């Protein structure tokens, strides 16, 4: 059986807002296997980024992790001391944030950004010389010209170059798990494909575990081994990419796949999912997808769900009670 590097167990994250409590992640459970590339897909607002931020315990204010556990190599990261978590960030787990290319410090050169990262998170005190030697090697890894890029300011680089620089920086302290939040979304298709290629090469070379978050389901087949589908704060389906694509066990997954643009498909065959995701302050009882689901109220589904992922076929999980009718 595959060994888990990371486990989310019933993780709940709440934002206490004026309007009420918004539960961005609601009892999400998910295992990440050592060495795999796991994709998490879901519409904007489904809770992907919030779930990912729990891995580093950096949920943004006014959010808080109000329930569940996040286990890294079996250890509850919510119980780490400040010193332990500082070392754990970047050296065990690194994250490339959404639109990270816009968040680089504009007034310092790339090489100083590498040095600052090492200084902030590296307990073993590698010398500046070693940090820069490593930065050069990593730049080659992401197919950038080291001397030119390391002495540049962020504005001197294209969007794709900045994103590759950030991927290189995330590898500086040899993390075992890399989380990438929409790493190619702001980029053109050619640059996207190039970055995907680089990520696959890094994965093959370093055997690093990757968690890849995106709203674009069509990317999954190009990069991931397994994929999880999130809807309204919950993980509703999980399995190998092939199983989830070709034998979907949740109507939301089917909807997402049929709504996805494809370069080869006839655009007229694209079918958007009707309606909109629920308000997470007052979500519907039972299955949150029911109001948008073609199976709801057709005689056999009354909107109940299993409440958690159930393994209905080996390695393939769903929350939908009607999974057997999914081919109908
Ligand atoms: N700082 C915050 N304050 C209030 N609500 C927030 C905050 N951050 C996220 N949320 C809410 O939590 C829910 C989940 O958002 P999240 O960003 O995790 O989704 P996502 O699937 O990653 O979408 P996207 O790709 O658009 O970021 C949304 O309803 C969002 O409005």
Automatic annotation (TrEMBL):
> Family, per the entry?
Belongs to the ABC transporter superfamily.
Name it.
Oligopeptide/dipeptide ABC transporter, ATPase subunit
Give yes or no: UniProt keyword Iron.
no
Is ATP-binding found in the keyword set? Answer: yes
Query: Domain ABC transporter: where?
Result: 6-257
Instruction: Please name the Pfam families in this protein's record.
Output: ABC_tran (PF00005), oligo_HPY (PF08352)
GO biological processes: peptide transport
| Annotated organism of origin | Mahella australiensis (strain DSM 15567 / CIP 107919 / 50-1 BON)
- SMART domains attached here? AAA
Recorded superkingdom:
Bacteria
Entry keyword set: ATP-binding, Nucleotide-binding, Transport
The regions listed as transmembrane in this protein's record are: none
Q: Check the record and name the PROSITE patterns matching this protein.
A: ABC_TRANSPORTER_2
PANTHER family the UniProt entry points to: MALTOSE ABC TRANSPORTER, ATP-BINDING PROTEIN, OLIGOPEPTIDE/DIPEPTIDE ABC TRANSPORTER, ATPASE SUBUNIT
Task: List, in alphabetical order, the Gene Ontology terms for molecular function in this entry.
Answer: ATP binding; ATP hydrolysis activity
């Amino acid at each position: 059986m595959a060994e888990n590097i990371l486990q989310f167990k019933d993780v709940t994250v709440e934002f206490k807002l004026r309007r009420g409590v918004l539960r961005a992640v609601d009892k999400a459970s998910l295992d990440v296997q050592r060495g795999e590339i796991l994709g998490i897909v879901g519409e904007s607002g489904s809770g992907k980024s919030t779930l990912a931020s729990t891995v580093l315990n950096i949920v943004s204010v006014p959010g808080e992790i109000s329930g569940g556990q996040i286990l890294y190599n079996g250890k509850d990261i919510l119980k780490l001391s400040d010193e332990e978590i500082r070392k754990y960030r970047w050296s065990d787990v690194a994250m490339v944030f959404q639109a990270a290319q816009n968040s680089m410090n504009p007034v310092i050169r790339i090489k100083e950004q590498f040095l600052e990262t090492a200084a902030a998170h590296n307990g073993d005190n590698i010398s500046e010389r070693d940090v820069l030697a490593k930065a050069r090697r990593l730049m080659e890894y992401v197919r950038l010209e080291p001397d030119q890029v390391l002495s540049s300011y962020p504005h001197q680089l294209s969007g794709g170059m900045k994103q590759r620089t950030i991927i290189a920086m995330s590898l500086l302290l040899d993390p075992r798990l890399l989380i990438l939040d929409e790493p190619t979304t702001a980029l053109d298709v050619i640059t996207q494909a190039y970055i995907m290629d680089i990520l696959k090469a890094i994965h093959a070379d370093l055997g690093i575990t990757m968690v890849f978050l995106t709203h674009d389901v069509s990317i999954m087949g190009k990069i991931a081994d397994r994929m999880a589908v999130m809807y309204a704060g919950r993980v509703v389906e999980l399995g190998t990419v092939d199983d989830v694509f070709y034998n979907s066990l949740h109507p939301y997954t089917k909807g997402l796949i049929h709504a996805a643009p494809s370069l080869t498909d006839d655009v007229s065959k694209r079918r958007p999912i009707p309606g909109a995701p629920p308000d997470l302050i007052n979500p519907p009882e039972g299955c949150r997808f029911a109001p948008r689901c073609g199976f709801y109220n057709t005689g056999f589904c009354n909107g109940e769900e299993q409440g958690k992922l159930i393994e209905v076929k080996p390695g393939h999980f769903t929350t939908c009670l009607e999974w057997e009718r999914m081919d109908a």
